[in-house]
Specification:
Blueprint lengths: L1 H37 L5 H11 L8 E4 L2 H4 L4 H8 L3 E3 L7 H14 L4 E5 L11 H8 L5 H11 L2 H8 L1 H4 L1 H20 L13 E5 L2 E4 L26 H17 L2 E6 L4 H6 L3 H14 L4 E3 H8 L15 H18 L1 H4 L2
Parallel strand pairs: 1-2, 1-3, 3-6, 6-7
Antiparallel strand pairs: 4-5
Length: about 350
């Protein structure tokens, strides 16, 4: 009996030791994956955008822009501040979904009380329930650990929570992308293999001020046809995700509680991209209905451009984002629209 109990104890100890070794190995692999993933992160502009926001004097902002890259490639705070003698800031992050917009806005309200909140709503971030990559982009610049934990608790699906805290699973995709790129470099160096030459954009891009990144580049030739991301988009097939729509409603409620006017905007995509999209009116109608549900004024610059022709393909840096020439055109129009559609700007 004692011998059997001793054998059972030895087995348990070995099993525990094995478990500890596996856990340590798993942790080391995770750190290695995380280190490799760090090489893939190019977030300097977003980092500077948030550093400047955190340095603002308390309660100094009149207007804040939130949303995806379509926000920070459309709205230059200087264009509004110089006209209205106000202070505004651009807070867009890559691929930002409304769930992130909501928690980012809560972060804004910790130190600021903006009179106007401009939420950019782009259909491609309104049709999926959760997206880890855009959450990570936000976490990289968020200086509030409690808010990060709140976000993980309230937004992450259970499976994504597990993946997030298990580093090898969280960074696996980034790690293999990094390793593949490193292997490709070694093969090129060893065997003299040359990549097919890829057309590069001409022009400059740099962080200017108040969260805005200046860019005067134009679209690549391939984006007029073969690489245009909108070639297969049909508005009849597009459905808004209930979770993301719910966060737009939560944003509206938060703005009301804090005394801010909420404005919804859809930034323009390139003229050639709109030519490819079928039944865009179906997408527009669903987003306009969401705006009506939250009782917020809404403007869609794809519709505006179809009506006015104020933008050409030359005003875009790629098939979906404006360059600075287009920013100036849209911002001038939007400033006039704000005067007509918001109490704050009507009084200025």
């Amino acid at each position: 009996m004692k011998k059997r109990a001793f054998s059972s104890l030895k087995f348990t100890i070995r099993l525990l030791l094995y478990g500890v070794c596996v856990a340590l190995l798993f942790e080391q692999v995770g750190f290695r994956y995380q280190e490799a993933a760090g090489h893939n992160v190019i977030n300097a502009f977003t980092q500077k955008r948030f550093e400047d926001f955190y340095a603002l004097p308390q309660n100094s902002l009149n207007m804040v822009f939130i949303g995806s890259s379509h926000s920070y490639c459309t709205f230059d705070p200087e264009n509004f501040d110089s006209r209205f003698s106000i202070l505004s800031h651009q807070m867009g992050t890559p691929l930002q979904h409304p769930d992130t917009s909501y928690y980012e806005l809560k972060e804004v309200y910790d130190t600021q009380t903006p009179d106007v909140v401009v939420l950019e709503i782009y259909w491609d971030v309104l049709d999926d329930t959760f997206e880890m990559k855009q959450a990570n982009s936000f976490f990289e610049v968020l200086q509030n650990e409690a808010r990060k934990q709140e976000y993980i608790k309230e937004v992450f699906p259970l499976g994504e929570k597990v993946k997030y805290f298990l580093l090898p699973m969280r960074f696996q995709q980034d790690y293999f992308a990094y390793e593949a790129n490193e292997m490709e470099k070694k093969i090129e160096q060893k065997y003299g293999v040359q990549k097919k030459k890829v057309q590069t954009q001409q022009g400059v891009e740099y962080y200017r001020s108040k969260g805005y990144v200046y860019c005067d580049m134009g679209m690549l030739d391939t984006e007029y046809d073969e690489t245009n991301q909108f070639k297969t988009l049909d508005g009849k097939d597009w459905e808004m995700d209930k979770t993301q729509a719910g966060y737009v409603k939560k944003i509206a409620q938060l703005c009301e509680e804090k005394g801010s006017e909420l404005v919804l905007v859809t930034a323009p995509v390139a003229v050639v991209s709109m030519d490819y999209i079928q039944n865009y009116d179906k997408i527009h109608e669903k987003m306009a209905e969401l705006a009506r549900e939250v009782n917020a004024p809404y403007i869609d610059y794809n519709i505006i451009n179809e009506q006015t022709g104020m933008l050409t393909n030359a005003n875009f840096r790629d098939d979906a984002h404006l360059n600075d020439s287009g920013v100036k055109i849209v911002d001038a129009h939007f400033a006039d629209w704000l005067v007509e559609n918001t109490a704050f700007f009507r009084q200025r």
